[in-house]
Design goal:
The complex is a heterodimer of chains A (172) and B (118). By secondary structure, chain A is α+β, with helices and mostly antiparallel strands. Chain A has one domain: 2-Layer Sandwich (Alpha-D-Glucose-1,6-Bisphosphate, Chain A, domain 4), CATH 3.30.530.20. Chain A is built from four helices and eight strands, in the order ββααββββββαα. The longest helix of chain A is centred in the last third of the chain and has 20 residues. Chain A starts with 9 loop residues before the first strand and ends with a helix. Chain B has two domains: 72 residues, Arc Repressor Mutant, subunit A; 38 residues, no CATH class. Chain B contains six helices and two strands. Chain B has a two-stranded antiparallel ribbon with strand order 1-2. The radius of gyration of chain B is 20 Å and the shape is elongated. Classes of the chains: A alpha+beta (172), B mainly alpha (118). The interface between A and B is medium-sized, with 32 and 27 residues.
């Protein structure tokens, strides 16, 4: 019926300072592009962590334009985020952006070498869009820290909680 | 080695295609250096060099058989390395499932992840 696609995110380490995430989507490239560049659409998927809201999602997607994203934990209201500027914008093919970590109320910082440079490419074949996100953290330490902790910890915890809840409800 | 140094050694060892092929072969069972060299257009000393890197990273050990000295895959260390990246991968996968849903909705399709969670 439909062609096999790589619909599970794949992660690789192309160099000591980089990490690459690849994923296919059954949607035209222009739509995937919009979901990455229109704040109202972007916040609906990237801000949609159970237990979190995204009070700030500003993005001015053009070369030199700035962006600011902030997430807030429902429990206790702690916030953190990312901000930066767009370095290259080639609709609907490629975005390069500089990304700074904003520790907010969580404290801590990414080890030196801010900003990370993120290159996102969109290619389409037979109605399937392949997304490649290549993040260069400038140093191995910063890259490893981003993979090990970064923003994933707290959010994963709330996801794990949700998974438990869902599993319980399905059983009951 | 600290766990971070261990991961470094593991990933450095995994960065080479021949070494990954050796691990794939060992995943099917223990093998001597001669057996490991066979499928590759490589000398035994060249294979031994790769094995040394894999052993340093704790990915391969030498079994107690004085004659053949078969090499063995150390699955636990490999698991440690993949677990580290796997959590990160799942983080992105969850994001992208939410994006799947949004893209489906924008195209007027029923939501996929709601139909089959996980």
């Amino acid at each position: 019926m439909t062609t096999a696609i790589n619909d599970k995110a794949q992660v690789s380490l192309p160099s000591d300072t980089e990490v690459r995430v690849t994923r296919d989507f059954r949607a035209p490239r222009t739509l995937v592009w919009r979901a990455h560049t229109e704040p109202e659409l972007f916040r609906r998927w990237i801000g949609g962590y159970p237990g979190w809201s995204m009070p700030v999602c500003e993005m001015d997607v053009r070369p030199g334009g700035k962006y600011r994203w902030r997430w807030r934990m429902d429990e206790g209201g702690k916030e953190f985020g990312f901000y930066g500027d767009y370095r290259e914008v080639d609709a609907p093919r490629e975005i390069v952006q500089a990304e700074y970590y904003d520790p907010g109320d969580f404290g801590g910082a990414m080890p030196a070498k801010d900003p990370a440079i993120t290159r996102t490419t969109f290619t389409e074949k037979n109605g399937v869009t392949t997304l490649v996100v290549l993040m260069d953290y400038g140093s191995k330490e910063a890259r490893d820290a981003a993979i090990s902790t970064g923003m994933t910890d707290g959010m994963e915890t709330s996801y794990a909680r949700l998974d438990t809840l869902v599993a319980e409800q399905q059983r009951g | 080695m600290t766990s971070s140094q261990r991961l470094d050694a593991t990933f450095a060892a995994l960065a080479d295609p021949t070494r990954r092929a050796i691990l794939a072969r060992l995943a099917r069972g223990d093998a001597s250096v001669a057996e490991l060299a066979e499928p590759f257009a490589m000398s035994q000393p060249a294979i031994s060099k790769h094995l040394k890197v894999l052993e340093h990273a704790g990915l391969v050990s030498t079994a107690q058989d004085a004659q053949r000295r078969p090499r063995r895959l150390e699955g636990a260390r490999l698991g440690e390395a993949t677990a580290w990246l796997e959590e990160y991968r799942q983080f992105w996968e969850r994001r992208y499932r939410a994006l799947d849903d949004l893209l489906d909705e924008l195209q007027g399709k029923p939501s996929r992840s709601r139909r089959k969670r996980r």
